[in-house]
Amino acid sequence: MSRVAIKTINWAALAQKIPETEKTAYAALKSKSDQYLRRLNENPEAPPKIDWVYYKKIIPIVGLVDKFQKEYEALKVPYPVDKYTSEIEVEEKKVHIKIEEFITESNQRIAAASKEINRVKNLLPFDEMTMEDFRDAYPDLAINVNKPSIWPHTPDVQPENDPGKRPDEYY
Question: What DSSP state is assigned to residue 146?
Fold first, then answer.
């Protein structure tokens, strides 16, 4: 993790992708990020340099400044261990796979819809169709003369779907 990481966020591009319903959450995140960046910039990246020669001249105790210098230079404040970047990258790869699958499925749906649109465009207009043309175009909606049905021609009112009758009592 470095101090430069937060500066690489393109807030303008991110704002364009945020839906209107999430603008308040986006504003809160940006505000927190800006606040963090201000606090980060208030502190120097490296600790201040100390003029050890000057202190050796003015402090009469021998070895005291050398001891402080040795301890000061040995002091290292580590950045917190980055445990989350690898997890985020794994999740990002999973999301990219899902996105690719969605794109593939969407393209298949688009192709099927385009095929259906072309089929419908090539049909005869309904006012010019005969009953045979309608049967050929919509076999599941057309009346089957070999198996007549009762009005309103829905499956739930047909005698063969009556649970109280035996199959030999249908007609």
Answer: T
Q: What would the two tokens of residue 37 be?
A: 């960046």
| Element holding 31 (H helix, E strand) | helix 23-42
Each residue of 34-44: pLDDT tens digit?
898 888 888 87
Q: Is the separation of the CB atoms in 142 and 135 below 8 Å?
A: yes
- Residue 170 contacts residue 160 (beta carbons within 8 Å): yes
Say yes or no to pLDDT of 2 above 60: no
What pLDDT score was predicted for residue 165?
64
State how far the Cα of 154 lies from the Cα of 150, in Å rounded to an integer. 8
- Long-range contacts of range 80-85, CB-CB < 8 Å, 24 or more positions apart? 80/1, 82/1
